[in-house]
Structures are given as structure tokens and as C-alpha cells.
Automatic annotation (TrEMBL):
UniProt-recorded name of the protein: Golgin subfamily A member 7/ERF4 domain-containing protein
Any GO CC annotation of this UniProt entry: membrane
InterPro entries in the record: Golgin_A_7/ERF4 (IPR019383)
Domain of life: Eukaryota
Species of origin: Pseudocohnilembus persalinus
Keywords: Membrane
Localization of this protein: Membrane
Any Pfam family hit: Erf4
Annotated Golgin subfamily A member 7/ERF4 domain residues: 26-113
Principal subcellular localization: membrane
Length: 160
């Protein structure tokens, strides 16, 4: 049986509040028709809901942003560090969550997801990858960690 694969990458545009560096508070969760036969709509929706939820939970509050802007002149821009720290943590957690999705769910469908940042904007890209390029470093493999991740993977897949 021939497995369907993506013909081209899919862009999920930013649709939330943008930070100065282009990172967004949320990304489009509309099901792309190009994923039909690869990843079902329920799985896609769960992935995007979780990703957007992680970003929102680390996104800085409005008061933090206002403080950054209002105090920027007297603090010579140092007040921007407060919201920047929150945004940086939100971005790191989003990248970590995307990596988790790639390892646990998307990899078995032959697709991967990544955060792409451009000047003043960003988007999530879903693209095909070649299984033959994957390599595992056996000497650095920790079996106990692998067993625990396998159990977590089984539980996660059952939820989806």
C-alpha cells in the first residue's frame, strides 16, 4: 500500500499577538487539506491546541508589555528585558513542544513541524522528511530513558 506524503510544505501563519522578534502568541489551527490521508483532523487539532496552549501559558501578560514600553525611555530600553524574558521562555517551550510532537506523533507519518522566524513575523511549517536519513547513536542511548519515553508515547497515542 502506497503511503500518501506531502507534495510541498504547509505554512501555518501567526494569528496572535506578535512580539518584536516576530514570535506570535498563537498560530493558525485550521486543518490544511494537504494533510488528508496523512494526519487526521482530530490529531492535527489536538497538536495545534496543545502548542498554542503552551505558548499562551508562557506569554507575558499585558501589564508586562505596557511596563516595557512606558518605562523604556527612563530605563534606556532595559525595561524591555521583562517581556523579552517571558517571550524567550514561551518560544523555547514552543520549540520543545514541536520537537516532542515530531518525535512522538508526526515522525511516524513521515512529516515534521518547525517554527520559522522571519523579520517581524513567524509561522509553523509542516514538511515531509526522508526516513532513510535518520540515524541513531547507539553508544549514547540510555535504555531506561528509552523505556520511559516508550511508555509515555503509548499513553500519548492512546489519548489521540
Amino acid at each position: 500500500m502506497d503511503t500518501p506524503h506531502l507534495q510541498s510544505s504547509i505554512k501555518l501563519n501567526a494569528n496572535g499577538k506578535l512580539y518584536i522578534n516576530g514570535f506570535s502568541s498563537s498560530y493558525d489551527d485550521t486543518y490544511p487539506q494537504q494533510l488528508k490521508g496523512i494526519l487526521n483532523q482530530r490529531q492535527f487539532q489536538k497538536i495545534m491546541d496543545e502548542l498554542n496552549s503552551v505558548i499562551q501559558s508562557y506569554w507575558s501578560c499585558g501589564l508586562c508589555h505596557y511596563f516595557g514600553w512606558l518605562c523604556s525611555v527612563p530605563t534606556v530600553g532595559l525595561s524591555f528585558l521583562c517581556p523579552k524574558l517571558c517571550q524567550q521562555q514561551a518560544e523555547e517551550m514552543a520549540v520543545e513542544k514541536i520537537s516532542e510532537f515530531n518525535d512522538i506523533v508526526l515522525g511516524e507519518y513521515g512529516i515534521q513541524m518547525r517554527l520559522v522566524k522571519k523579520f517581524l513575523t513567524s509561522y509553523i511549517e509542516i514538511y515531509s522528511f526522508d526516513h532513510s536519513n535518520q540515524q541513531i547513536e547507539i553508544s549514547n542511548l540510555d535504555i531506561s530513558t528509552f523505556d520511559q519515553k516508550s511508555e509515555n508515547l503509548k499513553e500519548y497515542r492512546e489519548e489521540i
